[in-house]
Amino acid sequence: MARQPEGPPPPPTAQKLRLRYAKRGPLRFASHRDLARALERALRRAQVPMAFSAGFSPHPKISYVGAAPTGAASEAEYVEIGLAERREPEEVRAALDASLPPGIDVLECVEASGSGSLADRIDAATWRVELPGVALAELAPAVEAFLAADVVTVEKRTKNGLRDVDARGAVASASAAEEAGCAILHMVVRQVTPAVRPDDVLAALVAVADLRPPLPPRAVREAQGRLDDNGTVADPLGPDRVAGTRCQGEPATV
Length: 254
What we know:
single chain; alpha+beta; two-stranded antiparallel sheet; 10 strands
């Protein structure tokens, strides 16, 4: 049988945009697949001129980076999109934000500077975990015991079944605080395989100090980026923002 022609090739990518968005409120329980579908529908509603891949089943050029786990809120989710036509980043941000359901909020949109991939700029995340019903006097010694350990092994469910992982090795720093009588766990967690999530660290606190929160914790990912020597997580959009500032005054073709 003769091979069917593939048709004309798709237009090349004219522009790459990088977006930071938040998932808040009830939307923290949405899966990554649900969020991806919502974003693709919003891109169509906002009439963003997406670039598509080649082949028999073209797909819009969308690349997600390090999605937060289901059940966790986030102020720092990242996605990169390819456009077939150039657009003003702020106009894309506003149109896309208006097309998404409440709880998925597009916070920033910048043009990719071309200096490496977005994933190359992210190897750690900062987390804030509220522990209702836990006092600072309980959390602080548990965090100290966790940090004093070289290895804290917890059982984690992965796609290949249950697996023992070292929760301690992934945590670059951790501290305890208190707000309005609620203990707060702050931590910086490196990206490792398999990923160490906030619930894995909480399981480690059970292992080292038998800390068992009486109420469900509330985890929020506050930032993602590269971890520097000072323990700071750098903004992954910083280089793009700087490059965009240098290019101000050069009108975009609309």
